[in-house]
Design a protein that fits this description.
Blueprint (H helix, E strand, L loop, with lengths): L2 H10 L6 E3 L13 E8 L6 E7 L2 E8 L1 E3 L2 E6 L6 E7 L4 E7 L4 E7 L8 E3 L2 H33 L2 H27 L6 H8 L17 H11 L17 H12 L5 H15 L3 H16 L6 H11 L11 H14 L12 E2 L12 E2 L7 E7 L4 H19 L5 E7 L4 H11 L4 E4 L7 H4 L2 H4 L3 E6 L4 E4 L8 H22 L1
Parallel strand pairs: 1-4, 2-9, 13-14, 14-15
Antiparallel strand pairs: 2-6, 3-4, 3-7, 5-6, 7-8, 9-10, 11-12, 13-16, 16-17
Length: about 500
C-alpha cells in the first residue's frame, strides 16, 4: 500500500455507513458504574438522536434519546456500554460525530451541526481529546492535500514538470508528516488507548526483501512472512477490536482472500496461530471461533470442509468453547463424524454393488476399485431427479468428447439411488450410458450413509485417484470443468513431487 493510499484509508474511518439494529453485550468490569454521556449540539433541531457502534462492518443501533433542553442530549443508565468506536447520528441519519467509549463512560462533548471539528470540544475523556486532535490534524492535512493535488494535476496537464514535481513532493511530505504524527503522538504516547490500537491496526506490515541464492527475489518466503506477521499490528487478546472498523475487513481479507485457496493443512496452520493469539480474551476467542466455523462450514470451496473439521476438533470438541451446551457439542460431533471419512485425501472404501444385469448374483457385482483409467468418478444420482438427468447428460458429453480425442482419463462408477429396480434399469437402458452402472440400494456397505447422500441429496460427485483410491474431490463441480480439474490436480501433484525431491 502506498503512503497516500494509507492516509486515505485512515480518513475513510470517519465516514458513515449503513445503520442496522442489534443489541450488544456489556463487557467492562471494575470501572465507574453505569454511563452518563452528554452531547451539546449547537443549532440542533433534532427531536431524537441515535448512538450506534461499529460492528462487523456495520453501524449497530445501541441507544437513542430525546433532548433534555434544546440541543442537549443525555445518554444515562445503570449499565455500561461495550467499549468501541461509536457514532452519534441525527434523527434524519446524518453523521454528527465519531468517538470512543472505553474506560470512562461519564463525559461531555460539545459540537455543532457543521461537522467542523475545529468547533468541537470534549471534557473528562482524555482518549477522545486525543482522537479530536487527530481529527483536526486529519482535516487540516486533507484540506492541504486537496489543494496541492489540484495544483499537481493542473501543472501536470500543462506539461510543467518542475511545478508538477514540486506539488507531488509536497503531497508526499504531508503524508509523511501525518504518518509521523500517528506514530509519535498517538500510538507511541498512548499505546493502551483503543483509538491508538485502532490506528496501529491500519499500519501495513513491512516485508523483508528475501533473496534466493542466485539473487532473485524469493516471493514464497515473502508471502510466508506476510501470512505469519499479518496480525502483528493487532492486539488479538483485546476483544474491543470487535467494535472497531479495522478488524472484520482484515479478518475477511486474511481468511477469504489471502488464505482462501491454500491447501487445508496450510489454512489450518494459520488458523491455529491466529486463535492462539485470541485465547487470553475469552470474548474475542468466542467471536473468532464462531466466525471461522461458520465461514468454512458454509464455504463452497473444495477442501474447506477439512478446515471446518479441524476448527471443530481443536476447539468445539476439545472442551475450549465454554459457551456451548451438550446438545450443541453433540451436533458438532455428529457433523464431524459424517464429514471426516470423505474429506479430500481420505481413502475411499471399495464399493461392491450390483449392476442392471447382474443384480441377483453377488459374485458378479461390480467393484469401484476395478477401473482402468487413472481416476474414477463416483456419480450418485436418482433416475427420477431432473437435475440428475441433466447433469448425467452433461457428464456423458464430456466423457464422449474426451473419448473421441483419446484423452479420457477417468472412468465413471454411476450409482443409481432408487428402490424401484425396474425403473432404474429402464432409465439406464434408455440412456445407454457407456460407463459402469450400479444401484438398487444394495451393496457391501451402506454407501448412501458413508458418502452422506441422505444429507446432501442427489446428485453427488466424488473423484478418487486410482493409484491409491484417495479422494481428490468431494464436491460436485460443473461437468465442463472436469478436464481443467484433472489438469490442475496433476499440476499440483507434480509441484509437490518436485518440492519433495528438492528437499531430499
Amino acid at each position: 500500500m502506498t503512503r497516500r493510499f494509507l492516509l486515505l484509508c485512515i480518513l475513510a474511518v470517519f465516514l458513515c455507513g449503513n445503520i442496522s439494529a442489534q443489541k450488544g453485550k456489556s463487557s467492562a468490569s471494575g470501572q465507574q458504574k453505569g454511563h452518563e454521556i452528554v452531547f451539546n449540539i449547537k443549532d440542533s433541531k433534532d427531536k431524537l438522536v441515535y448512538l450506534v457502534i461499529h460492528y462487523n462492518e456495520k453501524l449497530i443501533l445501541k441507544d437513542s434519546t430525546t433532548p433534555v433542553a434544546p440541543g442537549k442530549f443525555v445518554f444515562k443508565g445503570s449499565d455500561r456500554y461495550d467499549d468501541g468506536l461509536y457514532s452519534l447520528v441525527s434523527g434524519d441519519k446524518k453523521l454528527y460525530l465519531n468517538f470512543i467509549i472505553d474506560r470512562n463512560q461519564h463525559f461531555e462533548y460539545n459540537l455543532d451541526t457543521t461537522s467542523n471539528v475545529d468547533h468541537f470540544s470534549v471534557k473528562n475523556t482524555p482518549e477522545n481529546e486525543e482522537m479530536l486532535k487527530f481529527q483536526r490534524k486529519t482535516a487540516s492535512a486533507q484540506k492541504l492535500a486537496n489543494e496541492w493535488s489540484k495544483k499537481f494535476k493542473e501543472f501536470d496537464a500543462a506539461g510543467n514538470k518542475d511545478s508538477a514535481d514540486y506539488y507531488k513532493n509536497k503531497l508526499s511530505t504531508i503524508n509523511d508528516e501525518m504518518l509521523d504524527f500517528i506514530h509519535q503522538e498517538i500510538i507511541d504516547k498512548h499505546p493502551d488507548y483503543l483509538f491508538s490500537k485502532m490506528q496501529k491496526s491500519y499500519m501495513q506490515i513491512e516485508v523483508p526483501e528475501f533473496k534466493k541464492e542466485n539473487g532473485d527475489p524469493d516471493y514464497e518466503k515473502q508471502a510466508a512472512y506476510y501470512r505469519t506477521h499479518y496480525w502483528d499490528n493487532f492486539d488479538l487478546a483485546d476483544h474491543r477490536f470487535i467494535y472497531i472498523p479495522s478488524f472484520d475487513p482484515k479478518l475477511k481479507d486474511y481468511f477469504t482472500k489471502l488464505l482462501y485457496h491454500q491447501e487445508a493443512d496450510t489454512i489450518n496452520k494459520y488458523i491455529d496461530m491466529f486463535l492462539a493469539k485470541t485465547e487470553k480474551d475469552t470474548f474475542m476467542f468466542h467471536y473468532c471461533v464462531d466466525w471461522l466455523s461458520y465461514q468454512f462450514e458454509t464455504s463452497k470451496v473444495v477442501g474447506h470442509d477439512a478446515v471446518f473439521c479441524h476448527v471443530a476438533k481443536t476447539n468445539q470438541l476439545a472442551g475450549k468453547c465454554y459457551w456451548m451446551d451438550e446438545d450443541l457439542i453433540s451436533k458438532y460431533e455428529k457433523r464431524i463424524k459424517r464429514l471426516e471419512p470423505t474429506l479430500i485425501g481420505k481413502i475411499a472404501p471399495e464399493l461392491i454393488i450390483p449392476d442392471t444385469n447382474l443384480y441377483e448374483d453377488a459374485r458378479l457385482w461390480k467393484s469401484s476399485y476395478r477401473m482402468h483409467k487413472p481416476y474414477t468418478i463416483l456419480w450418485f444420482y436418482d433416475p427420477n431427479c431432473p437435475t440428475c438427468k441433466k447433469e448425467s447428460k452433461a457428464l456423458r458429453q464430456v466423457y464422449d468428447s474426451l473419448e473421441v480425442i483419446g484423452k479420457r482419463n477417468f472412468d465413471v462408477y454411476a450409482i443409481g439411488n432408487d428402490d424401484t429396480i425396474d425403473a432404474w434399469k429402464k432409465y439406464v437402458k434408455e440412456n445407454n450410458y457407456p460407463w459402469t452402472n450400479v444401484g438398487g440400494n444394495k451393496g457391501n456397505i451402506d454407501y448412501l450413509d458413508y458418502f452422506g447422500i441422505y444429507e446432501i441429496g442427489n446428485p453427488a460427485m466424488y473423484i478418487m485417484d486410482n493409484k491409491d483410491h484417495k479422494i481428490i474431490l468431494n464436491k460436485r463441480i460443473e461437468m465442463n470443468n472436469l478436464p481443467q480439474f484433472f489438469e490442475e490436480y496433476e499440476k499440483v501433484e507434480r509441484a509437490k513431487a518436485e518440492r519433495a525431491a528438492s528437499q531430499e
